[in-house]
Design a protein that fits this description.
- The chain has one domain.
- By secondary structure, the chain is of the alpha+beta class.
- It is about 20% helix and about 30% strand.
- The two termini are about 20 Å apart.
- It is elongated and about 45 Å long.
- It has a four-stranded antiparallel sheet.
- A hairpin with a 4-residue loop joins strand 4 and strand 5.
Length: about 110
């Protein structure tokens, strides 16, 4: 079934200079391996096309069931110099949660936990 990430995970975001930092955390343990497989740095870069002008790095945090993404050159220079509405990356978590992916039904109904 095709779902938005918000249905299987939550997220937090912030910034450091011109880099947005987005954490994606699986709601359940069975979802995390699927996120590792499907939510790649390349897919996140594509999702933020037109916003992220630099590299996207991904870090895996299995003990937290989380992925952390650094979106370089995404904030117009950062909070002190940017003319962007969200020069501090606070809305990037919400934007990532709008990404759609195909998820097997057994992961959605909780029977895999």
């Amino acid at each position: 079934m095709r779902v938005r990430l918000r249905e299987i995970a939550f997220a937090r975001s912030g910034d450091k200079g011109d880099t947005a930092n987005v954490g994606l955390i699986a709601f359940r343990p069975s979802i995390y391996p699927f996120l590792v497989k499907e939510v790649t740095a390349e897919r996140v870069k594509y999702h933020f096309k037109g916003i992220c002008e630099g590299e996207v790095e991904r870090f895996e945090l299995p003990n937290l069931r989380a992925l952390n993404f650094l979106l370089h050159r995404s904030l117009g220079g950062g909070g002190t110099v940017s003319l962007m509405l969200d020069a501090q990356g606070k809305t990037f978590a919400t934007a990532l949660l709008r990404m759609e992916i195909d998820v097997p039904d057994h992961l959605l109904d909780g029977s895999a936990d």
